Amino acid sequence: MTDVSSAPQAASDAMATTGAGQDMNGASAASAPAAASAPGAPSAPAVPSNGKKPWETLPVTVKVNGVSHGPMDVPAGLMMIDFLHETLGLTGSRLGCGQGICHACVVIVDHADGGCETVRTCITGANYFDGKTVRTVEGHAARDADGKLTLAPIQQAFLDHFSFQCGYCTPGFVNAATVLIEGLKRNPVARADLEAAITAGLNDQICRCTGYVRYYEAVRDVILKTPGCIKDAK
Ligand code: FES
Ligand code: FES
Fold first, then answer.
1. 215 lines ligand 2 (CB under 6 A)
2. Which pLDDT tens digit goes with each residue over 180-219?
3. Which of 14, 45, 81, 169 is the most exposed, fewest CB within 10 Å of its CB?
4. From CA 102, how far away is CA 123, in angstroms rounded?
5. 52, 139, 156, 175, 213 from 170: Cα distances, Å
6. Closest ligand (CA of 81)
7. CA distance 125 to 219
8. Which residues pair with 72 in a beta bridge?
């Protein structure tokens, strides 16, 4: 039976071994413009005759971890996680499923009213964040003038509780837990409702190493130690 999945690779290999722009018989292939280029010359992107750019661009001005970026134009299809990684050099946000399911890639968007929420960067274009204020996992720890790093309480708690194994999901958990804790400071819950609040706050975060119990314990510890999160705290 023919392996359909390998056909494109086989064709590619054939092109590589016979020379780009030629078929197996040595005849010129369809890529005539490439054949017209001078040997060794860098290939220029095709520019349509109407003079427009080959892709649509959209504006982005965004504040990330207190630093303003832009204004700049980005490709309309550029996802925020690629903008963070490739344009801003912030590689802490993790690309997991890439389909909006695992929430490993979430960042925090801060709103003018003091509220905040997580947003999935693998399925959200960079342009969506135009004019917004964002926190990534790189924005939680504090570094003093001597370069000494102090982790945020939730980061320290995840370490203390051995919450993660590979750590791939951890940036997402840090951000989701931060949104949960800050939300509880604004709207405290009764102690009896805390477990449900933690579940609601972290339910979307998937950990392939199944560190849920220790993640949840760490978040509960931080909440109980954070003044103002529990209505009936003694
Ligand atoms: S990587 Fe974004 S939701 Fe999984
Ligand atoms: S610690 Fe490995 S995916 Fe969560």
1. no
2. 999 999 999 999 999 999 999 999 999 999 999 999 999 9
3. 45
4. 11
5. 42, 14, 12, 9, 14
6. 1
7. 30
8. 60
Structure tokens at 149: 């790093």
In the chain, where the domains are located: 57-139, 143-231
Each residue's pLDDT tens digit, 100-115: 999 999 999 999 999 9
Domain range 57-139, CATH architecture: Roll (3.10)
How far is residue 12's CA from residue 31's CA, in Å, rounded to a whole number? 14
For the Cβ of 96 lying below 6 angstroms from any atom of ligand 1, the answer is yes
Ligand nearest to the CA of 94: 1
Ligand 2 lined by 128 (C-beta under 6 Å): no
Dihedral sign from CA coordinates of 198, 202, 204, 206: negative
Could you give the dihedral angle defined by the CA atoms of residues 148, 149, 153 and 157, in that order, rounded to the nearest 10 degrees?
-110
User: Which amino acid is located at 85 in the chain?
Assistant: H
**Ligand 2 pocket test target in 94, 170, 173 with most atoms within 8 Å of CB:** 170
- The CA-based angle 94-96-98, given to 5 degrees, is 110
Can 57-139 and 143-231 be said to share one CATH topology?
Answer: no
Give the global pTM. 0.78
- Let me know if domain 143-231 sits in CATH 1.10.274.10: no
